[in-house]
Amino acid sequence: MLISFFLLKSLAELEVLCTHLYIGTDLTQRIEAEKALLELIDSPECLSKCQLLLEQGTTSYAQLLAATCLSKLVSRVSPLPVEQRVDIRNYILHYVASQPKLVPFVIQALIQVIAKITKLGWFEVQKDQFVFREIIADVKKFLQGTVEHCIIGVIILSELTQEMNLVDYSRPSAKHRKIATSFRDTSLKDILVLACSLLKEVLAKPLNLQDQGQQNLVMQVLKLVLNCLNFDFIGSSADESADDLCTVQIPTTWRTIFLEPETLDLFFNLYHSLPPLLSQLALSCLVQFASTRRSLFSSPERAKYLGNLIKGVKRILENPQGLSDPGNYHEFCRFLARLKTNYQLGELVMVKEYPEVIRLIANFTITSLQHWEFAPNSVHYLLTLWQRMVASVPFVKSTEPHLLDTYAPEITKAFITSRLESVAIVVRDHLDDPLDDTATVFQQLEQLCTVSRCEYEKTCTLLVQLFDQNAQNYQKLLHSASVITVDMAIQEGRLAWLVYLVGTVVGGRLTYTSTDEHDAMDGELSCRVFQLISLMDTGLPQCSNEKIELAILWFLDQFRKTYVGDQLQRTSKV
């Protein structure tokens, strides 16, 4: 059993404790080490022991233990005296300034202590001054030093911004909101302006991408900008899982930053200049810029801002090399989806570059759908974009052409053909079948149903042709004397997709836009699924296939909701 912290005298004993706590494999020793840690935090010797570990410890784990103890000490509900907290903050600032080459996790842990002290003491007054709000002035001293010092200064601001945004449920939420609001109003804009000026300095000089220090600095500054833009400005604590619905509630006092075209240009230029790990962060920032609340601008300002965003999109799509990186590709798809979330189709079509950009986006989407195995989680955002664009068509009052009647059928065709072509590759190469991930399949189909009803005649003609062709091939295989298992699996997979797709387009029918011609087309498609059901019934139990049967259940559910029920307004031609 480890010695109680009250009895620990030597540095060696403290370091043994650190070893057991962080890298030990013996569970009993680790539990004892955790108990000793709690004793240390409650002991009068805590600060002196932490100082001993920081100044004389021979391992990074000794320094990490000191930082952990200090973090717990300053976070207690009954706070330390103001003078003591000021001393701890100043000591850590001096310590990281004198040892800028500490391992990253130690620097991070120590800076988190500074962030906690600053947040919890935000309204503390000493000699008529808010003593813990001087942190930005302290950071500016770091920015005048070496690259390592600059990195530390930026991390301090980044951690502070994150800490201010973090809700501590063990404390009153009203107090957290009061602190966060004060920080937003007094400091956050200055931090963003400082970060943008640092990025401008980076771009002004020739970029040495081989210099690891410079790369790290750029990465930390981009993370700082992202933390500023991700701040919970109005205390909504938005659900991050619904990020495609998010609007960034930028304060009105930030208008001047957003109205300057140089701000957006800066991040587009950074995307084109930086390696993928960093350009991905630049795109993440642009996602937030694209999500800026509409009411921040007047109508002419909004049109100008949107025009600059569209120019940036055009430039990225004309130079698509960076999109071969999965991280960049994913963030760019999010960026495109946010554009339609925040701007109306009537506003988009008024942008001068719209015809060329919508063509480029359509080609990008088609290529993405054809390469179904590359970043499949990102396709959701592209389908979201097209779904919302097509859904907006009936409400567009502008005389400018939206061109969706040209491109939406191509998107639908690319989805259909790419899914059918994927079946042979999945079966022959024994890959994970996308059809097994029903949650993703249903989500994508529900998005596609809106897109597929645009120029529905083209979609219907394609599906009828593909269904007849594949059903005939399936029938031949059923009646063949020697069936090759792989061929049958491929044909069944294709039919499963086709049944899902028929269910999708039938389920996409809207009463107020539907016509007798469209209902007749639904009838043509539905008839083929019912014929397939009869064909499979005659061959039971030999020709039973779970994937086709699940697809049929999906189709029947969509057909029932659309054409069978007491809510129907009129008898359709189906």
TrEMBL record:
Q: What SUPFAM superfamilies does this protein's entry cite?
A: ARM repeat
The record's subcellular location field reads:
Cytoplasm; Nucleus
**Biological process per Gene Ontology, one example term:** protein export from nucleus
Q: What is its main location?
A: cytoplasm
Q: Which UniProt keywords apply?
A: Cytoplasm, Nucleus, Protein transport, Signal, Transport
Span of the signal peptide: 1-18
**Recorded GO terms, molecular function?**
nuclear export signal receptor activity; small GTPase binding
Q: What is this protein identified as?
A: RBP17 protein
Specify the species. Crocuta crocuta
